[in-house]
Amino acid sequence: MTIGYLGPVGSFTYSATKFIFPSEMLTPFQTIVACLKGVELGQVDYVVVPIENSIEGTVNQTLDYLYHYSSLPIQAEIILPINQNLMVHPNWKESWKSIKIVKSHPQALAQTQQFISEYLPNTKQEITNSTTEAAEWLKNNPNECVGAVASKEAAERYGLSVVNANIQDIPNNQTRFWVIGKDQLHHGKFKSQIQRKTIAVEMEKNKPGNLHKILSTLSWREIDLTKIESRPLKTKLGDYFFLLDIKCEDLSLINLALEEMSTLGAKIKDLGCYPVYLKK
Fold it and tell me: What are the angstrom distances between the C-alpha of 64 and each of 12, 56, 61, 184, 231?
C-alpha cells in the first residue's frame, strides 16, 4: 500500500502520516491539490492532508477541493499536537537575533506571530510550500543569516540549531489531518476517540432562515455538532455552503436529519463517517 502526504519528509503532515501508517510506503507531494489528485488518479492508495488548525482554523484549500472537485470520502482523521520552533544554521546560532528573514509555510508563520513580533519585529517573512522546505533551504544556504519555523524533526534532519522551542502563540496547538481514499480504511492498531461525520450543505435559494432550517433538523434530535462553518460557493458574492462536523453516535438518527434537510431544499454532499485518532 502506498500513502501520499503533503511533504517533504519532516513536515507535520509527514508525522501524522507516519503515526497512522508506520510501515507503509510513503510518497510526498508538494501541494494539497497534488495530493488529492494523486489518490484520484490511482498514484497512491490514500493521502493525508491537513484540514484544520486550532489557531488558524480551516485549511481552505483542502475543504474547497473536496467539495467542488472530488467525490472521494474521508476515511480517518488524525489529531496531531503541533510545536513550532525557530531554527537557524549552526553558523548563526549565537547571533540568531540578527536574522532579517524568517521562512516557513503560511500556517506556521500565522501560528507564531506573537513571538516574531516580540523578538524579531523587523524581520521579513517569506512563504515556502512547507515548513520542511524552509528548513532544507537553511541547510543549503549556510552563509545566509535566515531563520525558519519548523518541527524539531526537520531541524534534526537538516542539522540545524533550534534557538527557540515551542514558539506557537497558543500552547495547546493541534492540527486535524484527514485520510482520503476510495476504500474503507481498516485500522485495528489504534482506538479511535470518537466517530465523526462531515457533510457539506447548500440550499437551493439564498433565503433568510436557511441556516436555522438546517440546524433545526439536528437540534430537535439532539445530534451533537462539533463544528459549523460557511464557505463561498465560488458562484457569486453572497452564495455559501455550510460545512458541518457531526458526532456520529446514532447514524440512523443522522440519516433521518439529512432526509429532512433534503425535503427542506438542501443539497447535501456527504464527505464520510470516520474514526478520529489522537496522537499524544
Answer: 21, 16, 5, 22, 8
Rounded distance, CA 33 to CA 11, Å?
A: 17
CA–CA dist 73, 280 (Å, integer): 26
Q: Give the confidence band of 62 by pLDDT, cuts at 50, 70, 90.
A: very high
Quick: pLDDT tens for 206-249.
Answer: 778 888 999 999 999 999 999 999 998 888 787 889 999 999 98
**Containing H/E element for 145?**
none
What band does 61 get if pLDDT is binned at 50, 70 and 90? very high
Q: What is the DSSP string of 44-106?
A: SSEEEEEEEETTTEE-HHHHHHHHHT--PPEEEEEEEE---EEEE-GGGSTTGGG--EEEE-H
Residue 74: HSE in the Cβ half-sphere, 13 Å Cα cutoff: 29
pLDDT tens for residues 154-192? 999 999 999 999 999 988 889 999 999 999 887 666 677
Q: Indicate the residue type of 81.
A: P
Q: Going along 161-232, which residue ranges are E strands?
A: 161-164, 174-181, 194-203, 225-232
Whether the predicted model's global pTM rises above the 0.70 cut: yes
Phi, psi for residue 53 in degrees, rounded to 5 = -115, 145
Element at 30 (helix H, strand E): none
The domains of the chain, with CATH numbers, are 1-82+173-184 (3.40.190.10), 85-164 (3.40.190.10), 192-274 (3.30.70.260)
Phi, psi of 30 (to 5 degrees): -80, -25
* Separation CA 167–CA 55 (nearest Å): 13
Q: How far apart are CA 156 and CA 237, in angstroms?
A: 46
Measure the CA–CA gap between 148 and 160, rounded to whole angstroms.
10
